[in-house]
Amino acid sequence: MGSSLKKRATVRQIAAETSLSIATVSRVLNGQDNVSPRTRELVLHAARRLGHDGPATRAPAGAVFVRCPYLLDDYFGPMVSSIVETIELHGMTAVVNAGTAARRPGMLTALPRTAGLAGGVLILPPESPDELARLRDQGFPFVVLDPRTSPPRDIVAVSSAHVTGARLVMAHLVELGHRQVGIIAGPQEWLVTTSRMAGYVAALADAGVLPSPERIRFVSEPSMANGYRAAAELLGLPDRPTALACFNDKTAVGALRAARERGLRVPRDLSIAGFDDADIGQATDPMLTTVHQPLAEMGRMAVTMLTRMLKGHDLDARHVELGTDLVIRSSTGPAPFTEA
């Protein structure tokens, strides 16, 4: 008898389980769109636990192609995991294509002809805007997550607020008295590099400082090894930086190694800040000051927008940015001396 009651869980029971209103739960279960992605997933999780059949609307037919042409590390891993979980919560199946094999030329052009695919989520696609536009013109629904280049205006894209995050971390360094700040930036052709550079420059300009070109290094790949090499160059300057703002936490870890090899104490002699809030940043000594990106939420948002497209809904906002937050830890401190 208890099993029968569980299968017939009421809206009131789900509302009590989630601490949400009955009206909100009803909107989710009736397939209405005026609910935030986080709230929708909370209700769907509770409904499954309680044995409810879930939303009244049918899931779109076909699987969702999830392409991540990179290693599933502590940056891309949370994105892909949240995407797959959310796809399954919507009653669909995920087809995941990841790693360097996912970079083979011509992959996107084959998607519209692949049987059983309803749409796709493309993570940091290396293809040009023109190639993405051609895929759109073939009628294949897709969402770009964390775009590498600026996507056409009518292509749906989800990213985080890179300009805001970079401005926050640079403002933090400025408040600590740093004026000679070295920047280890990402690949010059990446949209995110341009956005973060804009945030860094804006925060320095607020303090009346113009970034010196000799204190900026662009890396071809944001890795620990490249972060180490870039930091070694910057710390070898006659008038070295007192702080380093790094493209991500991996490059910041490389910078920590370069500082240690030169006998520099972090943060007493040199402050180092990363970006992403990856797990590796909490395994270093000192732990990294960084910028938190809502990677899992970005994945959930991408799937939510795709499912709306598949159901024929119009999207008022096609380029969505999710907020970033400064996370202050022990790798940043006051400038070691008063700078001219």
What does the model show?
39% of the residues lie in helices and 15% in strands. With 340 residues, the chain is of the alpha/beta class. The chain has three domains: 2-50, Orthogonal Bundle (434 Repressor (Amino-terminal Domain)), CATH 1.10.260.40; 63-160 and 295-322, Response regulator (Rossmann fold, 3-Layer(aba) Sandwich); 162-293, Rossmann fold, CATH 3.40.50.
CATH topology name of the largest domain, in short, is Rossmann fold
Q: Give me the secondary-structure category.
A: alpha/beta
| Helix proportion | 25-40%
Outline the biggest β-sheet.
6 strands, parallel
Let me know the average pLDDT: 90
Oligomer category: single chain
Number of helical segments? 12
Radius of gyration over C-alpha positions, nearest whole angstrom: 23 Å
Pfam family, one: LacI
Organism: Actinoplanes philippinensis
Domain HTH lacI-type: 9-51
InterPro entries: HTH_LacI, LacI/GalR-like_sensor, Lambda_DNA-bd_dom_sf, Peripla_BP_I
Quick structural gist:
InterPro entries: HTH_LacI, LacI/GalR-like_sensor, Lambda_DNA-bd_dom_sf, Peripla_BP_I. The protein is of the alpha/beta class.
Write the layout of secondary structure elements.
Blueprint (H helix, E strand, L loop, with lengths): L1 H6 L3 H8 L3 H8 L7 H14 L12 E6 L7 H14 L4 E5 L8 H4 L6 E7 L5 H9 L4 E4 L11 E4 L1 H14 L5 E5 L5 H16 L9 E3 L5 H12 L7 E4 L2 H13 L9 E3 L16 E3 L2 H16 L8 E4 L2 E3 L13
Parallel strand pairs: 1-2, 1-3, 3-4, 4-5, 5-11, 6-7, 6-8, 8-9
Antiparallel strand pairs: 10-12
Helix pairs in contact: 2-3, 2-4, 5-12, 8-9, 10-11
